[in-house]
């Protein structure tokens, strides 16, 4: 009897384990499943408890028998030394040994069964907790938790002009784009709609990607602006080609002390892929972060500034070298960017926790490969957060008119 109980108990464990593995962790069906099978499991456990009690009773009986037999053997030895009694006594002692073996075996089975029972009870408690959690969760209707706003437009400013006031995910379709695509729109209190094309905030996304990935975009868009991404060169091209109002690229930067600075570039555009997504802009509009796109005189060589300016540079990735350097800047720095020979600004660089890093930290090539804006912090300081976003020039000025009042822009 006992071995079959063990077998049943092992089978029960297997049922629990396999059911858990098969259904976890996706659907509300798991809770239903558990509730359906819990009564059966409870019943099986009750059977097992009864069996255990039965075995324990048998053991007690056997122990009592052994005591009686031991007593009678001793009594027999004492009362009669005759050979017959000795023989009988020897037989009885053999019986005693046999019974003791049985007791030992049964005690071991009881011990094993108790372990299985305890383990099953633990497992059931866990499953009950899990099923309660799922039950609570499933009381709300299952739905996609990412909210995409209903308004659409040619860009985020168009979306804001149509009445959208919440920052979040929107589908937009610039005139040049063959189909709509998803973007994060940052809409502020002045109803300015910035179309965000790049976001760094915590190093959660690796920006060491190839040409196709930079072309199509990578990372994650989130409705609450909590994730990192590159929107994609092709989409940036569609957003900036043939704009009737000049497009401003705003760059927002945050350092590891929490200081914030920005830089604005007017008439920003990316050429099509056939021209390697070349970066062009009309002029530096201003900002307190300085004009790092214009290049920087590092003091290494008189040509430093000329060879680190970014206006007019084609895009390069580790697998597509379009730079002005004998080597491959994008490969050496592990990023995609408008590389010259190589850079004074480098916002797709490697993420360094804490900001400061050294040539040794930079790995194999030892060049400055962090998130760099050299007119603010030097090239061995990697910024904490960056945002690159687009807005029509006519809407940029809202900040500057704060004192003049919001009304001036509220109606546009
Ligand atoms: Ca090269």
Automatic annotation (TrEMBL):
The name of this protein is: Fibrinogen C-terminal domain-containing protein
A single Pfam family it belongs to is Fibrinogen_C
Recorded GO CC terms: fibrinogen complex
Q: Where is the signal peptide?
A: 1-21
Keywords linked to the UniProt accession: Blood coagulation, Calcium, Coiled coil, Disulfide bond, Glycoprotein, Hemostasis, Metal-binding, Secreted, Signal
Q: Which GO terms describe its molecular function?
A: extracellular matrix structural constituent; metal ion binding; protein-macromolecule adaptor activity; signaling receptor binding
Q: Where is the protein localized?
A: Secreted
Record-annotated Fibrinogen C-terminal domain positions:
147-394
The highest taxon in the source lineage is Eukaryota
Q: What does the annotation say about its assembly with partners?
A: Heterohexamer; disulfide linked. Contains 2 sets of 3 non-identical chains (alpha, beta and gamma). The 2 heterotrimers are in head to head conformation with the N-termini in a small central domain.
Which biological processes are named by the entry's GO terms?
blood coagulation, common pathway; fibrinolysis; platelet aggregation; positive regulation of heterotypic cell-cell adhesion; protein polymerization
